[in-house]
Amino acid sequence: MLRVLQRGDRDDPKDLTITVRFEGPLEAMVPGEAVKNLVHRVVREQDHALSAIESLGLAICEQTFARHRGIGLARVEIAEQPWSRLDAGGKAQGQAFTPAGVERRTAIVSSNGTRTSVSGGLENLVLLRTAGFAPTVRGKTADEPAADGLQRLFVATLTAKWSYSSGDIAFAPYRAGVRQAIVEAFAWHKGPTIRATLEAIADVVLVNFQEISQITLSLHERPYRPVDLLDLSVDGDALFVAHDEPIGTIELTVDRR
């Protein structure tokens, strides 16, 4: 669903994909139309629409148990597509937008009416390193050329999911801070392996955000390989092409305990 929040001549789009799942006795199950109406009602409330998607998930769970007491467990999954304002004539436009890349904000809220768990996340964060990230090859360090003399390149898509220890958190600042920590750790850390860099990212997040109890990082490599121009005696910048190869994936979960 796409809600447009109007503020004079400046609009704010809220583009959400929401999945709601219920568990409980068959006779307690809620018709699909009732679920959609409940979600639409909560999203249309101004305060929830302007808040973080974690808060929106909590509100949906709260309304679910207030209206349907027979439900045993509710799980709300939310993905948000960010939009960026178009710049025309050096000025950001108030009512014209373009998708802000492929990255998505995600949140999962689960509740049984008494206890609630909340997790935030992001997916499709595309990262590129042209040095300092490739594993050591034949005794050379990550910043040295490979044995064939060609520069190495690492392109990957990162998915992150972190669990909060409480549902009473300023989710928006936490989300922005976690994303910044991930980006900075990736940019600065020079590890001999992908795993070492993921461990460094997880450590930075857990050290700086005490209300996060666990983080899972999943990195999907996008294979780019150098074009061999040595036989043509061509000098210049490195050239790479994408290859249709199996995608390498590494996933790491770090618990505060």
Please give a structural write-up.
The protein starts with a strand and ends with a strand. It contains five helices and twelve strands. The model has no long low-confidence stretch (mean pLDDT 85). The radius of gyration is 22 Å and the shape is globular. Helix content is 26%, strand content 39%. A hairpin with a 2-residue loop joins strand 1 and strand 2. The protein is α+β, with helices and mostly antiparallel strands and 257 residues long. Strands 1-2-3-6-7-8-9-12 form an eight-stranded antiparallel sheet. A two-stranded antiparallel sheet has the order 4-5. The protein has a two-stranded antiparallel sheet with strand order 10-11.
What does this entry show, briefly?
The chain has helices at 32-44, 46-50, 53-67, 171-188, 194-208, and strands spanning 2-7, 10-23, 73-81, 83-88, 91-99, 104-111, 116-129, 154-164, 212-221, 224-226, 240-242, 249-255. The chain is α+β, with helices and mostly antiparallel strands. The two termini are 38 Å apart.
Give structural attributes.
eight-stranded antiparallel β-sheet, 5 helices, alpha+beta, single chain, about 260 residues, about 25% helix, 12 strands, globular, two-stranded antiparallel ribbon
Beta-strand share of residues: 35-45%
SSE string = EEHHHEEEEEEHHEEEE
**Topology, number of strands:** 12
Number of helices: 5
Alpha-beta content class: alpha+beta
Q: Describe the sheet with the most strands.
A: 8 strands, antiparallel
- Strand numbers in spatial order across the main sheet: 1-2-3-6-7-8-9-12
Low-confidence stretches: none
Overall outline: globular
What is the end-to-end distance?
Answer: 38 Å
